[in-house]
Design a protein that fits this description.
mainly alpha; 18 helices; 3-stranded antiparallel β-sheet; about 425 residues; binds acetyl coenzyme *A
Length: about 425
């Protein structure tokens, strides 16, 4: 069980209807303090009103920290820049799940545990065939990941730590296989089985891009770029899909069902679908000379056009993930011989202009991770329909680490937000003949 690390650091006083009420204030390691209002309803008989949870801490967490003003993202205390440069996705998975970087033996054991779970139950292939031939990979992923609980029922007892661990390993290991199969099914190619002599990301690339008729050679530069993209997307504290996983899990639902709920939430264009929108916008702009026209539109209050890939609810500075993504974007385009790609030129010039423009500077609108990820993923060979599926693959470890942390938290309760009701007051039923 997890011990609470909240440090009492004072109190806050609320004055309501001429009475004063004190509430404890706690500090974490970093970030704003929190006012503990758990007793607010019981003592004051009011709720707080916070649609979109912009000022609400829903849990205590040791996993990820974001300082949106400074543009800092830490996984378990390590900066995303250092992890992107020096670590691997599998090592980051261990870090997120266990809290510390592994030593050599721990890493070897973890690698083996994950690798031994890469295959999926063979009847799962039959399950795929129930989807329409042109099904979107995310539609398939929602269904198939939810169905895992019926194939792996022996790891759905959330009160058994060993079953929780096995389910975590299964989800991390099988997600690349499931995503690659969703892609293969959508393009009408045969499924490719995992090859356990390959690393996590290389295996995924082979299952996605190889066909039985030809030999497939892994390009290490492209594999490193994709591995880095997975690191950048691995966790992002209490975002919409992670909060969805926690809320689903708070009722005691099994982890496969919870991750399927997270995938459904991620699918939305305001969350996982933004890189596709950024790529479409760059294609629409097309050439550098058309940028001023689009900048003008983005600034026009009467035009609802926005520069996609700019701005973020939390980051009011350069998204630290965007910097690492830009490096990988250059590496990939150079490697595939597209360094003169017109879209890259448009992106770089757009970024240069926007970073100097008063409108964007004063509103603190900086490039976010999605600005360069669409161009990079396209150059890696992924169709746009796979972009969100790749995000889901990478975010699975974050979801599962957050789910596990919640289950191990003794203060965990079923999530149950309140509301302010503004509908009709109580009234009497009138028979239809009299209406
Ligand atoms: N282009 C032009 N103006 C913008 C943009 C943009 N991309 N983003 C925000 N603004 C303006 C708004 O019009 C608003 O102006 P106002 O104060 O004059 O009304 C102001 O900046 C604040 O915008 P909000 O929408 O209130 O800010 P919020 O924090 O709620 O929104 C969001 C963040 C949704 C990401 C927004 O910046 C946006 O729509 N960006 C484009 C979409 C995008 O790139 N999304 C990816 C996010 S990253 C991720 O999900 C992994």
């Amino acid at each position: 069980m997890r011990e609470s690390k909240l440090k009492p650091s004072g109190s806050a006083t609320l004055t309501y209807e001429n009475k004063k009420y004190d509430f404890p204030v706690y500090s974490g390691t970093e970030g704003p303090n929190v006012i503990d209002i758990r007793k607010l309803y019981g003592e004051v008989d009011v709720f707080t009103y916070d649609p979109g949870f912009t000022s609400t801490a829903s849990c205590e967490s040791d996993i990820t920290f974001i300082d949106g003003d400074k543009g800092i993202l830490l996984y378990r205390g390590y900066s995303i820049d250092q992890l992107a440069e020096h670590s691997s996705f599998l090592e980051v998975c261990y870090l997120l799940l266990h809290g510390n970087l592994p030593n050599k033996k721990e890493m070897a054991d973890f690698d083996r545990a994950i690798t031994m779970h890469t295959m999926v139950h063979d009847q799962l292939s039959a399950f795929y065939r129930g989807f329409r031939r042109d099904a979107h990979p995310m539609a398939i992923m929602c269904g198939v990941v939810g169905a895992l609980s019926s194939f792996y029922h022996d790891s759905t007892d959330i009160n058994d730590p060993r079953q929780r661990e096995i389910a975590s390993h299964r989800l991390i290991a099988k997600m690349p296989t499931i995503a690659a199969m969703a892609y293969k099914y959508s393009v009408g190619q045969p499924f490719v089985y995992p090859l356990n002599s390959l690393g996590y990301t290389e295996n995924f690339m082979r299952m996605t891009f190889s066909v039985p008729a030809e030999e497939y050679k892994i390009n290490p530069i492209l594999a490193k770029a994709l591995d880095t993209i997975f690191i950048l997307h691995a966790d992002h504290e209490q975002n919409a899909s992670t909060s969805t996983v926690r809320l689903a899990g708070s009722s005691g639902a099994n982890p496969f069902a919870c991750i399927a709920a997270g995938i459904a939430c991620l699918w939305g264009p305001a969350h996982g679908g933004a890189n596709e929108a950024a790529l479409k916008m760059l294609e629409e702009i097309g050439t550098v000379d058309r940028i001023p026209e689009f900048i003008k539109r983005a600034k026009d209050p009467n035009d609802n056009f926005r520069l996609m890939g700019f701005g973020h609810r939390v980051y009011k500075n350069y998204d630290p993930r965007a910097k690492a993504m830009q490096v990988q974007c250059h590496n990939v385009l150079k490697e595939v011989g597209h360094e003169n790609d017109e879209l890259l030129k448009v992106a770089m010039e757009l970024e240069r202009i926007a970073l100097q423009d008063d409108y964007f500077v004063s509103k603190k609108l900086y490039p976010n991770i999605d600005f360069y990820s669409g161009i990079t993923l396209r150059a890696l060979g992924f169709p746009v329909s796979m972009f969100t599926a790749l995000f889901a693959l990478a975010r699975t470890v974050g979801w599962i680490a957050q789910w596990k942390e919640m289950i191990e938290d003794p203060h965990q309760k079923i999530g149950r937000p309140r509301q302010i009701y503004t509908g009709a007051a109580q009234r009497d039923y009138i028979p239809i003949s009299k209406r």
